[in-house]
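Practice problem 4.
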């Protein structure tokens, strides 16, 4: 679920093609999770040379949950990154989390900066970085916050934009959730789509490495991102992934990255074929009619819910009966599966419907008897 309502703000930006030079294909940012040694950084760049990579990335400072974990080589690794980029004709990129990081990266000539997910959640940290970026022309990308909160994501962009940065983009790297998942950070595509709807001017780069946490799933997530019309990919590529000092399981070799990129299909946004357009329009009209019927059915259902609430209030019965809700959910999920719908889809749908039903019943239960809406009958 989205956290709160987000007001749509138009940001003052320049198109991605102007700061990246890339048009008609996805932007690709790739390189090791972390710079571990000068030799490792140089070898990574050498083997990525010739693969279609637009920015060569490496983590210089690594935010870690536990202090004993590898936290990056720090400033000493910046010359390695820049020298490798120059040697193999690759523009460079790294993550920054403080004003000092920004100043050091810019001093050494790093070409693109991004703000990590753990930093995006903290407006104080983002503002510190924004202040350090005033007057800077390098592109800045903002990773989604660890929590599924569009307000934090948009707010971080607004802070950077107000500092005068116009070359902006975001990185969709998935979200931390409490429930078990096959993903390290479930993509929650609906949030990326909603962000794109609110900010069509901002390019969205998907990070399948952090979403999956597993190298064998990277290609599938990358293809899903492109199928949704997102603008690029950030993939972790290491010369010897199994020996990587951080996030070993989610890194691929440069050669494997090349294979993944070669197999991805970049689909067109639309087609000029008259037959396709006519067929699509007819199908969309059918969808519109079905949606209108669905909304009328939901409105009718809510009117029945209101009558139930009146009945419960008059008889001093609590709003929620868990046994009824459990039986209803089990029945609707089973019926949905018999109709060819997914169980998870049906469960999430009815949880939303039930949540709104309970909310509305609570409102009615709190009303004075004389406040009953005109025309609302009794069950």
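Answer key:
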């Amino acid at each position: 679920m989205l956290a709160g309502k987000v007001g749509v703000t138009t940001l003052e930006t320049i198109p991605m093609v102007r700061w990246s030079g890339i048009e008609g294909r996805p932007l690709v940012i790739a390189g090791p999770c972390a710079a571990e040694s000068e030799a490792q950084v140089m070898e990574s760049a050498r083997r990525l040379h010739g693969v279609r990579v637009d920015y060569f990335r490496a983590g210089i400072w690594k935010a870690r949950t536990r202090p004993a974990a590898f936290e990056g080589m720090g400033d000493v690794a910046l010359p390695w990154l820049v020298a490798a980029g120059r040697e193999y004709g690759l523009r460079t990129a790294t993550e920054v989390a403080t004003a000092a990081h920004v100043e050091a990266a810019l001093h050494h000539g790093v070409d693109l900066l991004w703000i990590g997910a753990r930093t995006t959640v903290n407006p104080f940290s983002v503002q510190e970085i924004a202040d350090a970026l005033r007057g800077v022309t390098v592109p800045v990308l903002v990773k989604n916050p660890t929590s599924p909160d569009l307000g934090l994501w948009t707010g971080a962009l607004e802070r950077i934009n107000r500092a005068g940065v116009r070359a902006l983009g975001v990185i969709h790297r998935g979200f931390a959730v409490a429930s078990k998942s096959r993903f390290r950070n479930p993509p929650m595509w609906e949030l990326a789509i909603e962000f794109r709807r609110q900010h069509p001017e901002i390019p969205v780069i998907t990070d399948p490495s952090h979403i999956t946490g597993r190298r064998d799933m990277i290609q599938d997530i990358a293809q899903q991102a492109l199928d949704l019309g997102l603008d690029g990919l950030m993939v972790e590529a290491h010369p010897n992934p199994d020996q990587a000092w951080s996030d070993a399981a989610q890194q691929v070799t440069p050669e494997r990255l090349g294979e993944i990129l070669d197999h991805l299909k970049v689909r067109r946004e639309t087609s000029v074929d008259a037959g396709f357009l006519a067929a699509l329009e007819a199908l969309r009209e059918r969808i519109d009619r079905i949606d209108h019927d669905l909304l009328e059915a939901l409105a009718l259902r809510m009117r029945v819910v209101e009558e139930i609430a009146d009945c419960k209030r008059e008889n001093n019965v609590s709003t929620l009966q868990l046994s009824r809700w459990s039986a209803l959910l089990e029945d609707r999920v089973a019926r949905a599966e018999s109709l060819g719908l997914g169980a998870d889809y049906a469960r999430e749908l009815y949880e939303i419907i039930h949540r709104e039903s309970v909310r509305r019943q609570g409102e009615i239960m709190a009303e004075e008897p004389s406040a009953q809406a005109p025309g609302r009958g009794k069950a």
